[in-house]
């Protein structure tokens, strides 16, 4: 009887193990099926962004300042820019006058300190030698040259007439900048851009899900209207020669 019970118990355990193996294999297959679906269903990000906001801003200390990682440094930079704008724009102070007055004050203080040290029986102040490193100037010049050449290449591509959408976008952007430039001078425009860099990225990083959802709806509506305009008007405009065509 005992041997008969043991023989009946063995298939029961085998059935239980087979059940767990089949359930685990089915769950693994479900996970493998769900992975491609999760990859395909990507979340819409503004301007097709795939990287974090910190990486898009270049990373490092500048991105930390724009995203207020260190509130004291970011507040100090924004406060310094505000002080410069108030000094030159509201108080109508001139840059050349500021440079001359700062040099007069610093030279007078160092001169008086050097002469007073002889009466106090102290060594005169060790004035450091200031010089601009050659590597820094060369790197800045090369970076500026690269950006200017890239801008010229983009303008040349737009002027060739191959991409009408990009052409209209650039024309609209330049027109908006011309309108803004007629309302304020370059310093005010630079200060506005500087303030936006310190406010818009940090607000977007905080509310990026809501902003991206709204941007997705707005982009869909814009594509609908653009398709109508393109079908009625823009498609009838002749385009320039393609890149593959040899002259």
Kindly state the mean pLDDT as a whole number?
A: 77
What would you report as the Rg, rounded to the nearest angstrom?
33 Å
Q: What composes the largest sheet?
A: none
**Low-pLDDT regions:** 1-10, 12-17, 19-40
- First and last CA, distance: 98 Å
How would the global form be characterised?
elongated
Helix content: over 70%
Helix-strand topology string: HHHHHHHHH
Q: Structural class of the secondary structure composition?
A: mainly alpha
Q: How many strands?
A: 0
Organism: Ananas comosus (Pineapple)
Pfam families: Reticulon
Domain Reticulon: 62-247
GO cellular component, one term: endoplasmic reticulum membrane
Can you tell me about this structure?
The chain is mostly helical and 247 residues long. Helix content is 76%, strand content 0%. The chain has helices at 2-40, 53-56, 60-66, 71-90, 95-119, 134-159, 164-183, 186-206, 208-232. The chain is elongated and about 90 Å long. The model is unreliable at 1-10, 12-17 and 19-40 (pLDDT under 50).
Walk me through the topology.
Layout (H helix, E strand, L loop, with lengths): L1 H39 L12 H4 L3 H7 L4 H20 L4 H25 L14 H26 L4 H20 L2 H21 L1 H25 L15
Helix pairs in contact: 4-8
InterPro entries: Reticulon, Reticulon-like
Protein name: Reticulon-like protein
Membrane topology: Multi-pass membrane protein
Quick overview of this protein structure:
With 247 residues, this protein is an all-alpha fold. It is 76% helix and 0% strand.
